[in-house]
Amino acid sequence: MAANKAANEKGKRDKVVLAYSGGLDTSVDIHWLQENYDVDVVAISVDVGQPETDGEEIVARAYRNGAIRADFFDVRKEFVEEYVWPLVKANGMYQDVYPLSTAIARPLMAKTLVKIAHEEGAKYIAHGCTGKGNDQVRFDAGIKAQDPNLEIIAPQREWIASRDDEIDYAAEHGIEIKAKKNSPYSRDENLWGASCECGALENAWDEPPEGVWIHTVAPEKAPNTPTYVEIGFEKGIPVSLDGKEMDGVELIDRLNKIAGENGVGRIDHVEDRLVGIKSRETYECPAAVVIIAAHKAIESMTLQREVLDFKKTLEQKFTRMVYDGQWFGGLREPINAFIDKTQEFVTGTVRVKLFKGSVTIVGRKSPVSLYDTGLATYSKDTVDTFDHKAAMGFIYVWGLPDQTAARAHTPEKKQ
C-alpha cells in the first residue's frame, strides 16, 4: 500500500480499469495487477441485479485492497430496458434452453468499463475471466469493438491458479476476501438469472445436488395448489403483473420470487461454449422462463404466420450474437430494428399457471388479436363467419401443382 501511494504521487504508472465484483478472483487481481504490471488499479463494480449487493462495502473493500479509485454503478434500469427487453422481444434462448442471463449482462458491463477507461485515461482494462469460458470473448470483443486501442489484461488467463491457490495468495499478501477453501461451485448472478458450474456438476450423469439451487424451491416441495399470474405486454415489453403496472426491474424481481417459490426456472444443460468446449451448467431463471413463454404466447395471437416463421430465423441469429459477444458488431442493430417492427402490435395480457416447476399458458387476450372467434368457431352458439364453400376452391388451387406433377409422373403417363 505504501509503495502504491508513492508511485501514485510520482504519477508515472499506467492505469488499468478492473471489472471488480468484490469476489475472490477480482480481489486478488488488484494486487496481482500491481505486482505484475506495475499499474494503478481503478476498480469498477456494475450492479445488474446481483442479490444482496452492498455497493458501499464492495467499494470500501476495493480501496482496502489497494485500488486508487473504486466505484459502484447501479445500472439495473438500463440493463432491463436496453438489454433484457430486446432479448425478450427476440425470445432469446440459447440452444432453446438458456435465457442468456449471464451473456446479456456483459455488453453493458463492457460499455461501462470503456467509459471509465476514457474518463481515467487508462491504458488497460482487466477482467477476471478464465481461458475456458465464454465471458472472456464477450469482454474482449465488446471492449475492442468500442475502442481498439485499449489493451486487455486477464489475470486468470496468465496465472492458472486454483481457487485454493488464490486464497493462499490472498493470505500471503494481506488481501481481504470473503471466500473460503473447498467452496464447491462457481456462480454468476444478476436480475435475469443465476448460473452455476464446477464441483459435482462436472459429472454430467449425476443429478445436480440440491445445494446448487439457491433461488428456487424444489418442484416436489412447491405448493400443492397452482399459482396464476397475468403478465401485460405493450409492443412486446412486459409492463404489468396481475394488472398492476410497474417498471421492468420491479416486475422481474417480483416474478423471480413468485415463480421461484413454485419451483419454476431450474435448467440443467450441457451447452456448447464458443471456445469449443461442451460444459455442464445449471441455471436458475424463474422470471426469464415465464416471461419468454408468455411473450411467445402473445405473439402467437398477434402476429401472422409468415412473420412468426421468418422472425424465428433472426431470433436465432440474435441469440447467437448475444452468446458469442457480438453485441457491438454491425448486425445486431439492423436485426433489432426488424424485431422492433414486428412488436408493433404485440400487445395484450397472458395468464400463466405455475405449478411444481411447470409453466403453462392458460389464457391470452389482446385488443389487436388476430384470433377471430367467428372464423374459428365450431359452436352452434356462435355466429360462424367462415365461408365454407370457398374452401373447395382454395384447396383446388393450393393442391394444383402437386396434382399436375402426379399426373405427369405416373407410370401410365410415361407409357
UniProtKB/TrEMBL annotation:
The keyword Protease does not apply. ATP binds at A19, Y20, S21, G22, G23, L24, D25, T26, S27, G128. Its main location: cytoplasm. It is found in: Cytoplasm. Its EC number is 6.3.4.5. GO terms for molecular function: argininosuccinate synthase activity; ATP binding. It comes from the Archaea. L-aspartate binds at T130, N134, D135. Pathway: Amino-acid biosynthesis; L-arginine biosynthesis; L-arginine from L-ornithine and carbamoyl phosphate: step 2/3. Keywords: Amino-acid biosynthesis, Arginine biosynthesis, ATP-binding, Cytoplasm, Ligase, Nucleotide-binding. Homotetramer. This is Argininosuccinate synthase.
